[in-house]
Amino acid sequence: MLARKSIIPEEYVLARIAAENLRKPRIRDWPRKARFIAKNGACNLAHKNIREQGRFLQDIFTTLVDLKWRHTLVIFTMSFLCSWLLFAMMWWLVAFAHGDMDPSTENMTNSTKWTPCVTCVRSFTSAFLFSIEVQVTIGFGGRMMTEECPLAITVLILQNIVGLIINAVMLGCIFMKTAQAHRRAETLIFSRQAVIAVRNGKLCFMFRVGDLRKSMIISASVRIQVVRKTTTPEGEVIPIHQVDIPVDNPIESNNIFLVAPLIICHVIDKRSPLYDISAADLALQDLELIVILEGVVETTGITTQARTSYVAEEILWGHRFVPIVTEEEGVYAVDYSKFGNTVKVAAPRCSARELDEKPSILIQTLQKSELSHQNSLRKRNSMRRNNSIRRSNSMRRTNSSLIVPKVQFITPEGSQSASET
């Protein structure tokens, strides 16, 4: 190290390192913008500083359904347990006030002069067991209520009413949580990426949607919205500006028959927010396309909704989805392994506005693609011919090598005789 320092001055080394660092391009990683809707359909939104928390208790049933399963099960268990303990305390007080807890009255039970309010209730444990029997209507037969105490009859009626209310609310909550609409939406799938290609002479934004279940979605409809940050002419900044864009559907209604995977198409025309965006501008755009599929579940009749979104990085320009529906032995078969596969196709790199103003761009693009396709076919044919010629030559060489040469034998008389061996 000392020899190196003596040979190369330190100032020269530092200057060279600084020059090398200046030559290297510095790439700044811009932070990715948070998407409004995740790929699984969840809304990426956090509610903060909510002061009126009491509004959630006004709609207690929806609040219970929206809770997580662990919280719902804890509330389900505690509601029954607390009601049993509460009425067990009431039954114990009734028995204590009537004197059923007095040991002197234990031998007077069979007497006609004294009758307890509830038989065999001598402690809080027995009162708790009787509370469970009343509310759950088990009826073991060891403990029973008599007509001695009108207050006990009132407590019995009150506990039955409260128990029915708790059963209705808690069981309804559990049923609604198990039959929620978003559970059905998990079998509605969207393609991981969307594409932009030419269809019927127009640039179109397309994605694929499918249903994994055989039970259909009735009256299914698809909506597309563009979410972007905009600024009004007055200077107002709208962070989440939603714009509906039309979906190309040959049927007058917006409903689709989702019996097999479909490619949903949006024609990029003058009404579309993508009208002025070209292939080069797409990566620089700060936009998000939200897709919403709504319909009625055939088996339950509940309305369900499936959502996803596509950002600029997930949109492939000049691609097309491969076909996945084939007819096999009189049955249409769907190959879901190719659900999101795409292939490159000829598509102009300009925006839809430029394509409308200069239709010749599309013709030139198609001609170039046709020429390139013909050239590729010619190359393939020439390569095949060359391969066939090489194979034939190699076959001739091998056959010629297998032929046995003629050998001439010279006799002593000087005559020559040819023989083949």
Describe the model.
This protein is α+β, with helices and mostly antiparallel strands and 421 residues long. Among the domains are: 67-179, Helix Hairpins (Orthogonal Bundle); 184-363, G protein-activated inward rectifier potassium channel 1 (Immunoglobulin-like, Sandwich), CATH 2.60.40.1400. 38% of the residues lie in helices and 23% in strands. It contains eleven helices and 16 strands. The chain has helices spanning 2-7, 10-23, 54-58, 60-66, 69-98, 124-136, 150-178, 181-185, 279-282, 352-357, 360-402; strands at residues 188-190, 194-199, 202-211, 217-231, 237-245, 255-256, 262-267, 287-297, 303-311, 315-317, 319-321, 325-328, 331-334, 342-344, 406-410, 416-420. The strands form five sheets. Strands 1, 2, 3, 7 and 10 form a five-stranded mixed sheet that branches. A hairpin with a 5-residue loop joins strand 8 (287-297) and strand 9 (303-311). The longest helix has 43 residues, at 360-402. The radius of gyration is 41 Å and the shape is elongated. It starts with a helix and ends with a strand. The model is unreliable at 1-30 and 414-421 (pLDDT under 50).
